[in-house]
Design brief:
8 strands, 395 residues, alpha/beta, TIM Barrel, binds iron/sulfur cluster
Length: 395
């Protein structure tokens, strides 16, 4: 039965939080959250869990730490990504005209998920300045190929300039994506957020790595599942996820362990059925994203001695067809400090675009067309199996 086998894939016997959040009794998690202060901030609970599991949620943003991690990845004996492309008869990656401008608005988040490739948490303070935000709007206006502005974080809505960017980009009739963690909709001072998103017809892409409360809480924190379901209900009430409204709500699945995502289409069917039957909620599309072997997920792999085997899994599943859909070809990623990268993963590894440019060094994203993409061992995460990008499977 397809449903049972998919459930196995989203319910592995070992997951990042099982070792680091063992103090949470997952069997009673869903029941207890109803008495745990839903409707109040999640931040105190997140901080409590971070204190209980400091190695998994440590704040590491220093350049030296990024360099150490890159060296650790490179030291695994994984072949050079560029050389592997050429051995398979493919060209090295070069940038095409940018159609998506992705902005990391800041690293503050009310959650501290075990797989977070940004290492966000309530302890992070890095945020976009007004000056950088205004420059981003100018660049979007000066880049005729850009059709989408993709706002990510952290919890982007809790960072400075989020609403400014939404308003300005919608005025230009650009599609705006909000990468929403759902629990933010219940944070104090965010009571009007869902209405703001609907009023500006923002495309919401929300994380829900499983339709099981225990698995979501293991990966994302105690009580997150129930708060997420409440968040989807709130969005549904406004029309999100419903036919004919034009208000798009997509959900994101990523594996809760060291394995590749299952078929996106098959998992979408299972998600839709389960969430409708159990909670009466609806959404448009399911996006499956492969876990990248960087940041917290890399720490998890190292702790469990699984880094080598995970990299081998990515390599064994290298798919030449998936190379054509990698997002770095037509996406530009901007950090909270205005630095420009080929993708969000490179941003988190501190691997700047050629020439180390910032938003103040260019007048249009079109100037970047033709540049060679800065690649590394982590790129095998985008080309394994059905391919992976911020928009989900690429095949
Ligand atoms: S909600 Fe997103 S940004 Fe926040 S900690 Fe989780 S994965 Fe990271
Ligand atoms: S990790 Fe970034 S640079 Fe590498 S293939 Fe994926 S999108 Fe491109």
């Amino acid at each position: 039965m397809v449903f049972a086998s998919l459930f196995d894939l989203v319910s592995p016997s070992s997951s990042p939080w099982r070792q680091t959040r063992g103090h949470v009794d997952m069997a009673t998690s869903a029941a207890r959250v109803f008495a745990s202060g839903r409707g109040t901030s999640l931040v105190p609970q997140t901080l409590k869990e971070m204190r209980a599991a400091p190695p998994n949620t440590k704040v590491t943003s220093a350049k030296e730490e990024n360099a150490r991690r890159r060296r650790a990845l490179d030291g695994l004996g994984v072949p050079s990504f560029d050389a592997h492309l050429q051995e398979n008869g493919l060209e090295v990656l070069r940038r095409e005209p940018a159609t998506i401008l992705q902005v990391n608005v800041g690293l503050y988040c009310n959650q501290a998920c075990s797989h977070c490739h940004v290492e966000s948490s309530p302890l992070r303070t890095e945020m976009l300045s007004d000056e950088v935000a205004e420059r981003i709007v100018e660049l979007a206006r000066a880049s005729p190929n850009v059709s989408t502005v993709d706002l990510t974080g952290g919890a982007p809505e809790m960072n400075n300039c989020f609403r400014y960017l939404v308003e300005k980009c919608r005025e230009m009739d650009l599609e705006v994506i909000d990468r929403c963690n759902l629990t933010v909709l219940q944070e104090p001072n965010q009571e009007d957020l869902a209405g703001f998103l609907a009023d500006h017809r923002v495309h919401v892409v929300a994380s829900l790595p499983c339709y099981s409360a225990s698995n979501v809480d293991q990966q994302r924190g105690y009580g997150v599942f129930e708060r997420s379901i409440d968040g989807i209900r709130k969005l549904n009430t406004l029309g999100y996820g419903k036919e004919g409204t034009g208000l798009v709500l997509d959900l994101v699945y990523n594996p809760v362990g060291a394995f590749l995502p299952p078929s996106q289409k098959a998992l979408e069917l299972a998600y839709k059925q389960e969430l409708l039957d159990a909670y009466g909620i609806v959404f448009n599309n399911l996006i499956t994203i492969t876990n990248m072997p960087i940041k917290r997920f890399a720490d998890y792999l190292h702790r469990n001695g699984e880094m080598q085997s995970y990299m081998q899994l990515l390599l064994d599943n290298f798919n030449t067809k998936a190379v054509h859909g990698v997002m770095c070809k037509d996406l530009v990623s901007v950090g909270w400090d205005g630095q420009i990268y080929d993708c969000d993963f490179n941003q988190q590894l501190g691997m700047g675009m050629q020439g180390g440019k910032t938003v103040f060094d260019i007048d249009s994203l079109d100037e970047l067309t033709g540049q060679r993409v800065h690649t590394g061992s982590h790129c095998f995460g985008c080309t394994a199996g059905q391919g992976s990008s911020c928009s989900g499977a690429t095949l």
